[in-house]
Amino acid sequence: MKNLGLIDKIVFIFNSLAATALLLSYLLAFIPPKSFPLLSVLSLGVPVLILINLVFMVYWIIRFKRQFLLSLIILLVGYNYATNLYQFTGDTQTSEEELSIMSYNVRLYNSYGWTDEKNIPEKITKFVKEKNPDILLTQEHTVDEIGINALYPYKFVHKKGRNSEFGMAIFSKYPIIGQSSIDFPHNGNNNSIYTDVVVRKDTLRIFNVHFQSLNIKPEIDELRKADSKKLLGRIGQGFSLQQEQAEMMMKKVNETPYKTIIAGDFNNTAFSYVYAMVNKEDRFTDAFLHSGEGFGQTFKLNYFPLRIDFIWVDNKIQINDYKRFKNEFSDHYPILTKIKI
């Protein structure tokens, strides 16, 4: 640093802090949130830290300074994290016999009027009918919603608790021969359900998951008004609950005798502990990483393209395509993958 001017020295100090924070955040995917709930919050900032380090690297390159190596090395160490953030091209193909699977958090079909847009249930039903997925997984599903229900001959619609107004659902064009709910032991409607679906001569187990919400409002003004200590504490507690829920689900996944697909609203990013837990044994492929493009944003956050909805496909199954549909009927965007059967 002795060859740097005062301003460059100050810039390099901030660069070092950003690089250290990014390196630490890489490790958080392997540290149980229950151990360090508040520290795990840093994983939400990985996308921002990656972009900040890219900016620092470009700054030093323009200045012809070897300090660019700091951010470059940190980014190379976390190369897989960068690919989780953005995909330049997707690997797509077609097969004569394909199965399409869609996951969609429908936000109660606007039952509480979160948007002024009219006829949301009808618009969601029309959208699903147009895309025509063979299997549809919905989270925050209003159990008496008849529009979607009428599109599929086979279904498993489950609400957690007698007084619940909503739950989760799996709809299928193919026969469902088994179904169950894991029922997370926490207050609220977050849960995981699964069905065994017979597709031609094969049986697939389909998990629909909705992990604990972190209760982060997408509006930047709401974040500014929030008490930072309470917000961080709530997020940390949410991460701890997500860990427990993921452990329960993965126990059932690991007992499954069939090829398996896991999809739904994780309420967390691809840099989180629960994301890493799903693929701890390299059994699954994130369909976005295989066939997606761009940031793959699935949640309407005003200040960053957040991807918190996922479709994990058993490695024994070929992924043909992945798409994200940017409509305005919920605070989540629906995602769809096509697989070869």
TrEMBL record:
Endonuclease/exonuclease/phosphatase domain residues: 102-332
Pfam families the UniProt entry points to: Exo_endo_phos
Reported cofactor(s): Mg(2+); Mn(2+)
GO molecular function terms listed in the Swiss-Prot or TrEMBL record: endonuclease activity; hydrolase activity; metal ion binding
UniProt xrefs under InterPro entries: Endo/exonu/phosph_ase_sf (IPR036691), Endo/exonuclease/phosphatase (IPR005135), TDP2-like (IPR051547)
SUPFAM superfamilies for the chain: DNase I-like
Name the UniProt record assigns to this protein: Endonuclease
